[in-house]
Design goal:
This protein is of the alpha+beta class and 244 residues long. Helix content is 43%, strand content 14%. Strands 1, 2, 3, 4, 5, 6 and 7 form a seven-stranded mixed β-sheet that branches. Helix 7 packs antiparallel against helix 8. It is globular. The two termini are 21 Å apart.
């Protein structure tokens, strides 16, 4: 689950599993954005494509330590993450539960084959007015933010951690309720690691040449310090999707 801002709620967690299964769902597909084109739909499709390019650049960089080697493909029916194993669908859905996730301070929540997002202002076009493309003020998210969100939630899917499946979801909520864990939740540590790796990758890419080595040095020092209660890097060698 990816936080959008520092606001957390406790009461919705216990009802989550039951409500999530019975909500409206709209899958966000490039083909639907293209079917009735308009300026906003064309913009978000460009940003989505740019985000995939950026995410793929990260995946072939030395900063990728947690996700397995692979690439995202964005086709008419949506995204998938292609690795040496079977391709994983990374579907994006706007749902009633996603609306509630957004109200409680998060941008998205992982599922077995992607993630759900929720409505954002101006609430005119459900295909574009949601937390995959807009922030809480209704402003457009940058390709960088879309890429980071996609990578974070894909890590959940790959490792089957978080609200990925009924029993994983039950365990996630129980830990959150009884241990008051959110950003430091044990099921967020691989996803947080990917987010950190991408952030350093992007910052190093934007930095002046004389400062690039500083980012790399600090990144390696962080990795050498080992796992923390916030992040666990470099576990892709465990072939996570194959762990049952």
């Amino acid at each position: 689950m990816r936080p959008a801002r520092c606001l957390f709620a406790h009461t919705w967690l216990a009802a989550g599993l039951a409500l999530a299964a019975a909500c409206r769902s709209l899958e966000i597909r490039p083909s639907d954005l293209e079917r009735q084109p308009g300026a906003e739909r064309e913009q978000v499709l460009r940003d989505w494509k740019a985000a995939v390019v950026l995410a793929n650049a990260f995946l072939v960089s030395p900063y990728r330590r947690t996700l397995p080697a692979g690439k995202f493909e964005l086709g008419p029916q949506g995204m998938r993450f292609v690795t040496q194993h079977d391709p994983l669908p990374i579907l994006v859905r706007v749902t009633d539960w996603g609306d509630w996730v957004v109200r409680t301070g998060f941008a998205a929540q992982e599922r077995e084959n992607g993630f759900v997002v929720g409505a954002q202002p101006p609430h005119k076009d459900r295909l574009v007015d949601h937390s995959f493309f807009r922030d809480g003020d209704g402003d457009w998210l940058s390709p960088r933010t879309i890429a980071e969100l996609t990578l974070h939630e894909t890590t959940h899917v790959v490792y089957r951690e978080g609200t990925v499946g009924f029993w994983n979801g039950a365990a996630y909520y129980l830990e959150a309720i009884f241990f008051f864990r959110y950003s430091n939740h044990s099921a967020e540590r691989h996803a947080n690691a990917t987010s950190e790796e991408f952030s350093v990758f992007y910052a190093e890419g934007e930095a002046e040449s004389e400062y690039k080595s500083i980012y790399r040095e600090h990144f390696e020092q962080h990795l050498a310090a080992g796992p923390t209660d916030h992040c666990t890097h470099g576990a892709e060698r465990q072939s996570p999707r194959r762990r049952e």
